[in-house]
User: Fold these one by one.
Assistant:
Number 1:
Amino acid sequence: MFPIAFMMIVTVVFISITTIIYTFTEDRIKLNERLRLKRAVLYAAGVRLPDDPAEIEEAFNNRVTEVKDDAERVRYYEIGSSDSSDDIESYVVIRTGAGLWGEITAGIGFDKDLEILQGLEIIEQNETPGLGGRISETWFKEQFSGKLPPLSAVPEGDETSAEQFQAITGATYSTGAIRDIVNSARKYAQREIQGAE
Amino acid sequence: MQGYKVKKIFSEDLGRNNPVFIQVLGICSTLAVTNLLKNTVVMCAGLVFVTALSNVTISILRNYMPSRIRMMVETLIIASYVIIVDIMLKAFLPDVSRQLGPYVGLIITNCIIMGRAEAFALSNPPGLSFLDGIASGIGYSYVLLAIAFIREIMGSGSIWGYPLLGDWWTNWSIMVMAPGAFFTLAIFIWIVKGVLDRKEIAAS
């Protein structure tokens, strides 16, 4: 009997400790995740802000509208212009696709006609660090601004046209995954926002 | 006596009985997180924390713990500390937490922690067990940091994310993948063992 009682006591004590710590940090963790999503949406829309939580919060609240479906899930984000008019400047959609090791989730921004890419931000990825993981590097993400999807990849370092982007050497699969996510994001945006078939 | 023991713990864990290059424990994370120096530092800090505290806790409980279930108790204690590290990283270092991804959780299965619990904490008082945890953690860390340094500079041409080598350097892709870690670790063990063996021959 003693081993059972001992194990039960130890279990109760340690689970209580972790639960207390979790309860104290829960709000902070949720806030971090929310903030990260807001920053990603703004970044994908081409809005460049300093990494300051208050500023990101303010810009998001002033300019971004979440458009939701009946189940309260966000379908896309509308980004208003920086002056006080009600014009919509761009749209951002969040899409997930299959990467090499796990899923890649990205925010993709389009202009109001859904023709020109405003930006790309990687929200979640588990690609090989140093290879596919480089999809999160600034040079890679920045090259998407102003491109006209559907896009195709050219080798790293080559000249690109408006329909092309530079691949990552040694990460063919991850590059392809990003290409597919961006291209399907445009189809998704056209369907959701313009109602096109 | 106590001072002698402390010194022995450190010289054993850092040198002749090093968990990574002598006992070859904890190789999973040695291979997995050493492609970038920054990730390695956080991983090492997490491991030092978990090894030291789980050693103390197990040492305190060692006289009450029924020996039949001690493995269960040890695993539970180790897992609790790893959960705490994971929560803390998520709350206070969210970017690092995301980069390390599943590897923080994998500290639970790091053989060094269980190894030190079984080999040291079960038969030594809490104070010494704490120091042993710290020493094993450091012994693990400096090997990982050395490997991470070599892998990051050769694989990415950078250190701590800052590009050090210019355009003339072509990154060795293999260094950022698992095989690169195998090669680096093997060469590291080869050199260190060679030095240690030579010393022993010279001593005798």
Number 2:
Amino acid sequence: MERKPIYKLQGTDLSCIRDDRVLFEGLAFELVSGQVLLLEGKNGSGKTSLLRILCGFREPDAGQVFWCGDAINDSQYYADMAYVGHLDGVKKELTVLENLKVSLALGRSGQYSIEQVLTKVHLAGYDDALVQALSAGQKRRLSLARLLITKNIVWILDEPFTSLDKQGIALIESLMSEHCANGGMIVLTSHHDIDLHGVDVQRILLS
Amino acid sequence: MSLSRAFFAIIRRDLVLALRRRSEIANPLLFFVLVITLFPLGIGAQPHLLQAIAPGIIWVSALLAAMLSLDSLFRSDFDDGSLEQILLSAHPASILVLGKIIAHWLVTGLPLLIVAPLLAIFLGMPTHSLGILLLTLLLGTPVLSLIGAIGVALTVGLRRGGMILSLLVLPLYVPVLIFASNAVEMAGSGLPIDAQINILISILLLALVLAPWPTAAALKMSIN
């Protein structure tokens, strides 16, 4: 079997304080290729704040995040990660194809072409449809398609299953399992129970 | 190589978006034309006075039209999450932001250049200073977009940033206004204007090199 390089995302002693309220402190985790980190907790418990820290949008109030041993700002991290937040990050006046072309230009080409990805997320034939004409679930699948067209290792997903139907959820779960099997890693928040066969899932409960 | 691809992809994207939302192009242009056509009505039949203040009128209107269009620079990207994606890209954010500013100028600044000569003739400006008017607009309006971008980037996260934006940006526009309208006025009287033009060129180059960094940094703060 081909040996894949092992990547490691590590957080040490992270804390986040918002409006004088401590959301979490002393939080540590270590995630290597092939693993999934699931953040759980009720609304307002700091799940999204932690994801935004991992994206570098927000500085942790203490602690640091490391990518393969280097602080994320001094490493290849941003070339290796992809983020889908609760905002879709697609322009509604552009077509599906135009949106994906922009995402592709901003990243590195991955293993799939745009056509292959559209087939994978069941949006084949929608190439020239304006995004504003798509349903919420289709928009969601389009923003998740961005993960597949670019080459990346870490997926950071904030509630990826929002507005997806059962088939959509199963589809994204299978894509996630495939990504982990290919040596990727995923950090996500979700209110749904996720069902990933044969994937090492770590859970962090924020309260 | 791939950085230039990303840079042009951003410019292309914003131009396509502008074409699909035409009001974005039309608004500042319409404002520019309306303000300038109102002046002769307000001042009355005094062709000499109008001719004397024409450079000032055109430049002040261009400046206000640029201000009016600024908010659209990052607003929709901020609202739909595209801005996060742009800033997360492994490419330097300042270069991508520069692409957005260039696209914004092509959409809102360039049309002003095209109608300005017509409006100048309408105000009775001497024909030999039309070329200089165009030159100052060509050098000055990109500066308005570049400096304005810093202000918008700082205020895009605020609910009502409009007032603060004007307070932040207008003082920085003043040098451009002074040198540009002065150059057009002097050209009208046949005086040399090399100094003003050189200063405008240097302001443009400085802004081109220095403005994208604080803009990118301010955007990173705003999305937090």
